[in-house]
Amino acid sequence: MFLKFFSKSRSTDDMELVRQYRRSGDLDVIGKLFERHTEMVYLICLRYLEDEEESKDATMQVFEQLIVALKRHEVSNFKSWLHSLTKNHCLQLLRTGRLKNKVSQALPREQHTLPQDDATQAELDWQALEHGLVHLPAEQRTCIELFYLQQKSYREIEEITGCDLKQVKSYIQNGRRNLRIYIEKNHAQR
């Protein structure tokens, strides 16, 4: 297995495939990178998420992110960069899950005495937040997720996204505003 993986990944240099993809946008090139590194990404996901099905889903999500991320970021060592991308994706999933748990923990402890409407409202609020994030422009969503969910500094976000500091601050500010507007609009429809 190891020799198969090693010989396969050396037939064409990863960085050459990255350069090809950046030039052409050809998804078949991403497919080759996916073939080479699926096992590594899956094992990283499994280590963090500790669930086989979630890890499979996360592996696919990481490779979907590559389509955009490789166009935006300068990569000097693909395997190391992919490892970091995967780890950050898993941490984001874990934080999002923890954030959802915090929202539910904010409810009174005795769930059986809690009116159904309050529990339902908390779940609807959480869903509105998730849907709001999805509806943000990609740059705003990325900066919001990095800042709030991954607790990255402005400088770290600047390095990750390639945006300058003013853009990062603007994306976060506008993202918060747009998220608030989306949630208020969503609440008004109920």
TrEMBL record:
Coiled-coil segments on the chain, per record: none
UniProt protein name: RNA polymerase sigma-70 factor, ECF subfamily
UniProt GO molecular function: DNA binding; sigma factor activity
Domain RNA polymerase sigma factor 70 region 4 type: 128-179
One BP annotation, GO: DNA-templated transcription initiation
Superkingdom, natural source: Bacteria
InterPro entries in the cross-refs: RNA_pol_sigma-70-like, RNA_pol_sigma-70_dom, RNA_pol_sigma70_r2, RNA_pol_sigma70_r4_t2, RNA_pol_sigma_r2, RNA_pol_sigma_r3/r4-like, WH-like_DNA-bd_sf
Repeat in keyword set: no
